[in-house]
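Posting this for the archive.
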Amino acid sequence: MNDPNVPNVSNDANDPQQVNHYEGPVFNKGVANAQLAWNNGTVTQNQQINDGSVAPGYEALAALVTDLLRQLPGSGLADRDRADAATAAEEVIAEITGSDSPEPGRVRRAVTMLKGALAPVATGLAAGTAVGAQEWAQSAIRGLTGLV
């Protein structure tokens, strides 16, 4: 009788080798940009894949805005304000990852819109913000200010 915890391997030289793995996922080809979760009913995953690479000199801004987008759902912003902030952040990312050289004026305007969307959280005016959201928004605004 086969033990389910031990992989089954065919010993017949004429049969292609078959291995059964019971402990997790198996990839038989190259895998890129994959996210996996198993044995977890409460997992939340986010991923942003940009076709273009980040323009030279904008790497820190791309990292900050991508992280900001990831944390935005927990910011406590009202739906409309959160959508505005996400749109502004996505405009920044699109401008610095496009096939053309980034237009500094467009980047500055999108960053200014993003800072404006975060301002109610940073100043404590946004009702219902999550604990720590005010400090997070202040830090994000300082980071954005220092990068453009």
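The chain is about 45% helix and 0% strand. The mean pLDDT is 78.
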